[in-house]
Specification:
The protein is of the alpha+beta class. The protein is built from 1 helix and 9 strands. The chain has an 8-stranded antiparallel beta barrel. The longest helix has 25 residues.
C-alpha cells in the first residue's frame, strides 16, 4: 500500500477516534443526565387535620442529589430536609408547633404523574394529604 493510499484509509479512522475522544471527555460518554425524582416541583396540597382543612404549598428541590422542601402557608414557612424517595415511596419528618405543643409529623406517600397522595402520621392519628403539581 502506498503512503497516499494509507493516509486516505487512515483519515476516516483518525476522525472517528477524535470524535469518540471528544465525546467521552465532554459529556461523560454520552450518558444523559438522570431525571429528577418525581417529587421535585411545586405542589398545591390539601391536608385534612384535626383543626380543619389546610392548603399549603410544598416546594421540593434537589441540590447535589439531596431532596429539600419548603412548606408555605398563611401561617409561615417551614423547611423540610431529609426527604427520601425509595422505590417510589416518599418519606420525611417535620417538626411543628400546634396549639402550644411540639409535634413530629411523619409523611409517607407517592407521586403518580402530577398527583401526590399520602398521609401524615401524628400522635392524633393519620391525616390524609392530596396534592396536584403546580404550573409554576
Amino acid at each position: 500500500m502506498s503512503k497516499t493510499a494509507f493516509r486516505r484509509a487512515a483519515l476516516p479512522l483518525a476522525l472517528l477516534l477524535v470524535l469518540v475522544t471528544v465525546g467521552c471527555a465532554s459529556g461523560g460518554g454520552g450518558k444523559a443526565a438522570a431525571a429528577p425524582p418525581p417529587i421535585v416541583g411545586v405542589w398545591n396540597l390539601v391536608l385534612e387535620t384535626p383543626m380543619g382543612k389546610q392548603e399549603p404549598t410544598f416546594t421540593v428541590t434537589q441540590v447535589d442529589g439531596a431532596l429539600k422542601g419548603m412548606f408555605s402557608s398563611p401561617q409561615g414557612e417551614l423547611d423540610v430536609g431529609d426527604i427520601t424517595d425509595t422505590e417510589g415511596v416518599i418519606t420525611f419528618d417535620m417538626d411543628i408547633e400546634a396549639a402550644g405543643q411540639a409535634l413530629t409529623l411523619k409523611f409517607s406517600g407517592s407521586v403518580e404523574g402530577d398527583t401526590l397522595t399520602g398521609k401524615f402520621g401524628s400522635d392524633f392519628g393519620d391525616m390524609p394529604v392530596t396534592g396536584t403539581r403546580s404550573g409554576e
